[in-house]
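Retro notes (design track)

What went well: tokenization of the new backbones is finally stable.
What didn't: we kept losing track of which sequence belonged to which structure.
Fix going forward: every design gets posted as structure first, then sequence, in one message. First example under the new rule, 172 residues:
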């Protein structure tokens, strides 16, 4: 399935840049969670908020196996020195690991998979995890039930050394 035909790449880029400008540290992702939850609600998904404090989980119900797709939301406590127009507006906080991109990619995937022409018929859980950077957010998300009924889960991470157009996969 070609998911790009369902996406407004300009809008997703704008969203990612907004998230980049307003980074929030682990378990402080209040604004970020609101943006994520509102986007998912607009798609008509079942949305659970406050998972592991600031996490968000949305479910697209279907028949068959249940798959989890996960993105992280937190920023790092670093000063951004970039001169890009969408530089962090919050001193001492930045999305240095691409979590703004991870969120935008997963939101775009949610949009594409909610289209009527979607060929995937199973259940998809869109998992937006807080506090990935050393605070154990995944552990708290799992404790709060984000993986209940999920038969497999996939995460994504941008990797600057991966050639454009290639996808790297790692077991585990």
């Amino acid at each position: 399935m070609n998911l790009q035909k369902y996406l407004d790449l300009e809008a997703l880029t704008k969203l990612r840049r907004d998230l980049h400008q307003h980074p929030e540290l682990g378990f402080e992702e209040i604004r970020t969670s609101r943006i994520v939850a509102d986007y998912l609600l607009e798609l008509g998904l079942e949305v659970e908020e406050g998972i592991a404090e600031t996490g968000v989980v949305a479910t697209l119900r279907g028949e068959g196996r249940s798959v989890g797709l996960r993105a992280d939301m937190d920023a790092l406590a670093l000063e951004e020195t970039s001169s890009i127009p969408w530089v962090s507006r919050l001193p001492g906080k930045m999305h240095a690991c691409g979590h703004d991109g991870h969120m935008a990619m997963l939101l775009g995937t949610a949009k594409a998979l909610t289209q009527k022409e979607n060929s995937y018929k199973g259940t998809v859980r869109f998992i937006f995890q807080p506090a990935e950077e050393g605070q154990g957010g995944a552990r708290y998300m799992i404790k709060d039930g984000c993986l209940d009924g999920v038969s497999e889960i996939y995460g994504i991470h941008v990797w600057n050394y991966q050639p454009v157009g290639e996808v790297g996969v790692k077991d585990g």
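Added context from the reviewer: The helical segments are 9-21, 30-42, 99-113, 137-143.
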